[in-house]
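Can't paste images in this forum, so I'm doing it all in text. The chain is below; anyone willing to post the predicted structure tokens underneath?
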Amino acid sequence: MTLPIIIALCILMLSAYFFDITSAKTKIPPVILLFALGWAVNQLAEIFWLGIPDLSTVLPFLGTIGLVLIVLEGSLELDFDESKFSFVGRTILIAIIPVLIFSFGLAFVFRQFVDVSFKSALLNAIPFAVISSAIAIPSVNNLSAKNKEFVTYESSLSDIFGVIFFNFLLENEKIGLASVGYFFGEIILILIITFVASIILAFLISRIKHPVKFAPIILVIVLIFAVSELYHLPALIFILLFGLFIGNLNQLKQQIFVKKLHTKSFKKEIRKFKELTMELTFLIRSLFFLVFGFLINTSELFNSETVIWSLTITGGILLLRFFILRIFKIKILPLLFIAPRGLVTILLYLSIPASLAIDIANDSLIIQVIIFTSVALMLGMLTAKPKEEEASSEAT
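Text version of the structure:
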């Protein structure tokens, strides 16, 4: 049984790679094809009575590791300097404001149909408010550098804020000055950890001479993230800031602690680190969405009872996004449609305790919203101009 599993896994991952390299031409987000492929494998397994072990316990593990790598990969690709303060500040607002508005708005709607506490309704609403960087970032490779940078910042920050907001709400029975003060204390602590860890990890990258050097670095990054999460610290802030620090050392070369690191050989090492991170991210992200597609029940996918809800939520996402982009004077197309739900939505949904779950926000609704927002993303990419044409029109 081992060899057939290896063969099947290799074929599936090669298919995922094919979807990835052809997405720029087909305009189909790879995640839709991965969902479909995983679901098709499940159907074949049932038809041929293949004994496949329960993969539901694997999903949170792949999702957590995938989230770390996706945010790290995205932050490593971002260029940051003083000239981008205004752009980044505006993008932070564009990422955070919709999460808050949509979460509270959907929570209010949930309460009109289900007799639950507002906290419970809000916890169930937050997963639908978060843009998935796991889907958005790899889907915009064919856009101009400016739009790609915007999507990377926005989706990464949406992930981070959504997770922080969800955990803050989950961990505090009552929201008051004490809990808010404690929360800001956690922010300060993770910033200190980020500063110290970033310097140490950068030093290790520049000094380790052993042939195997990047795997231990990535393991240390995941370890810091896991320990920080264990103590309820906003660990994704560490991942984002570490990636920005490593990816933009040339902007900090005047700093004393960076001068010793900023060498030609170190630049090459960082390039290799980025490449390895990209490769690992592709593997974990593809596995996650394949497994998720495999676990989709046909009855949940075509559940007519939740279709109206899922279409309404998707419409609400796009309508709110339209107004936010207009308010901040951002070009509407194709960015309007680049607001997919995905990996973080699934992780947060799976983290809701049974005592706080509500019937409306069920598996079917999650699956359908992810599919509909991914289809909207596909339509958005169809309206996008080729990268070269878009860049020239922006220049003029």
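The chain has 17 helices and no strands. The longest helix spans residues 264-295.
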